[in-house]
Automatic annotation (TrEMBL):
Sorted UniProt keywords: Membrane, Transmembrane, Transmembrane helix
Signal peptide: none
Taxonomic classification: Bacteria, Bacillati, Actinomycetota, Actinomycetes, Kitasatosporales
Biased composition (Basic and acidic residues): 296-310
Protein name per Swiss-Prot or TrEMBL: Blue pigment (Indigoidine) exporter
Domain of life: Bacteria
Length: 317
């Protein structure tokens, strides 16, 4: 349970992104914001850990960095700029369902009725919290929202599937992914949005918060949780992000909360608890010979219960 609570701090922190973006950052710079969120944090973590990928982990880090960071951040901001925030949040809430579907072929975690019920109920609860009657739909925005949720779901499942190289901790893995995901965003931001504008002290404070708290710390505990919990259970914790955003909007920005929104929060929180306490039912798998061509211990095809022995048990106790 301690690991679940610690991992939940990541989506709770991510819920502050909207308030920080609107109150502290320059307008109409989504790709710049995505870049400054990911790349500085990744480079700092690389400098701190002083560990670089080896062998297959160069391309694996690139894939995970693209799915969890680069592609996800870019699509997230496209959806946010083309859709009302509530619609974008509801589209993001389908991530647990997508992760559950991907976990079947990639992890052997079978989807239970309880997981499906929690996922559908969670989407409904988020919709109550964030949707308004005047919400409009934009085809490209909807596509970006769903694709972004799919990218994050695939990244979560593949992070669980591949694990970590022998002797490499989650902090180093976080640095690899943030750097790999942030580097392609830099030229994209310069080409699409032009040169970086003059930044005020308020802007720098906002970017610093996003890079340090939302990203470096948030993704470190998120990837740590993926290593210790079933991938589907971790994905359900993402439902906390829109709930956190609504609470921060009420507490810090003076936004009103209606009875319907409070009901939606209760439903979403219940779905999060139900989904995050699921234990993945893994299919039998063969044990590989220890080590591989790169000299790392490859445990990706071992049953999840054995792969995370001594970790997932304590995490969900």
């Amino acid at each position: 349970m301690r690991t679940v609570l610690l991992t939940a701090l990541a989506p709770l922190a991510w819920g502050s992104t909207y308030a920080v973006t609107t109150e502290f950052l320059p307008a109409d710079r989504p790709l710049l914001t995505a870049t400054l969120r990911a790349l500085p944090a990744g480079l700092v973590l690389l400098a701190v850990t002083r560990v670089l990928p080896k062998g297959v982990w160069w391309w694996r880090s690139a894939v995970l960095g693209a799915l969890n960071i680069g592609v996800f951040f870019a699509l997230l901001f496209v959806a946010a700029y083309r859709l009302p925030g509530g619609v974008a949040a509801v589209l993001g809430a389908v991530q647990p369902l997508l992760a559950a579907g991907l976990a079947v072929p990639l992890l052997g975690e079978w989807v239970s009725r309880r997981a499906l019920l929690a996922g559908v109920t969670g989407v409904f609860g988020v919709a109550l919290v964030v949707l308004k009657a005047t919400a409009r739909l934009d085809a490209l925005g909807v596509l970006a929202g769903v694709a972004g949720a799919a990218a994050m779901a695939a990244g979560t499942v593949l992070t669980k599937r591949w694990g970590r190289p022998e002797g490499v901790g989650p902090l180093a893995m976080t640095g690899w992914q943030l750097t790999a995901g942030g580097l392609p965003l830099l030229p994209a931001a310069l080409l699409a949005e032009g040169a970086v504008p003059a930044l005020t002290a308020t802007n720098l404070l906002g970017y610093g918060y996003l890079a340090a708290v939302n990203t470096a710390f948030g993704y470190w505990i998120w990837f740590r949780g993926i290593g210790r919990l079933p991938a589907t259970s971790v994905a359900f914790l993402g439902l906390l992000s829109p709930v956190s955003a609504a609470v921060i909007g009420w507490a810090a920005l003076g936004q009103a909360l209606t009875a319907l929104q409070l009901l939606g929060m209760t439903v979403a929180l219940g779905s999060t608890v139900l989904g995050s306490t699921l234990r993945g039912s893994a299919a039998p798998a063969r044990r590989r010979a220890p080590g591989n061509a790169e000299g790392e211990a490859d445990r990706s095809d071992l049953p999840l219960e054995r792969r995370d022995r001594g970790q997932s048990t304590s995490a969900t106790a």
